[in-house]
Amino acid sequence: MHLGGTIEERVIEPGVWSLSPQAMLPPRDRPNNPESIIAPPFPDVVIASGRRAYPYLEAIKKSAGPKIFAVFLKDPRISSTLADMIWVPEHDKLRGDNVIVSLTAPHPLTREEMAKNRLSAQDRFANMEGKRIGLVLGGTTRGVTWNEETCSRLAERVSRLPVAGHSILAVGSRRTPPQMEACIKEAL
Question: What are phi and psi of 174, to 5 degrees?
Fold first, then answer.
């Protein structure tokens, strides 16, 4: 969907951040002096996504003030007061007067693409028996460390499901370690 008007895209390489309120960001997410990269003329609407974009949005808002409408996609996990509107998927916990919640995060998939993919999936999985179970593998987070032991426990539990007459569709994420994918593949 295009809102009309002129669109300008600025690509910014992240780097090391100087002392600022953004010091709470992990070092890999701190940009080099965003004020030097973000300069007037400023647009009427700014849309940013991801923690690495947050300091740039902050620099624009500080420089241009309230005349800019700032939109942030996903939970910034830093402050919810900077953006005029934040759009989060339902699974994010952030709520507030400036927060819009939808079932999923904003994405570029059209209804037509999803319908086409649905038909393709039906053909690919038509010969699977019983109920289908979707298994989305994550990765190491602050609360869970995926190692050989956790992988083995999950694989043991997953290996019991097909015996119960179910088919399992497993997919890894960008955080899934290759050894976990191999462990689950072997279990299935």
Answer: -65, -20
pLDDT digits (tens, 9 = 90+) for 17-28: 433 444 444 444
Count of Cβ atoms closer than 10 Å to residue 46 Cβ: 20
Identify any residues that bridge with 29 across adjacent strands, giving them in sequence order.
Answer: none
Residue found by looking up tokens 């500080």 in the block: 62
Tens-digit pLDDT profile for residues 95-143 = 999 999 998 877 788 889 988 888 888 888 888 878 888 888 888 877 7
DSSP per-residue letters across the chain: ---SS-------------SSGGGGS-GGGPPS-HHHHS-SSP-SEEEEESGGGHHHHHHHHHHHGGGSEEEEES--SS-SSSSSEEEEETTS---STTEEEESS------HHHHHHHHHHHHHHHTT--S-EEEEEE----SS----HHHHHHHHHHHHHTGGGT-EEEEEE-TT--HHHHHHHHHH-
pLDDT of residue 84: 92
Whether residue 56 contacts residue 29, with contact meaning beta carbons closer than 8 Å, is answered with no
Q: Which amino acid, 108?
A: P
What pTM value is reported for the model?
Answer: 0.56
How far apart CA 76 and CA 24 sit, in angstroms, is 12
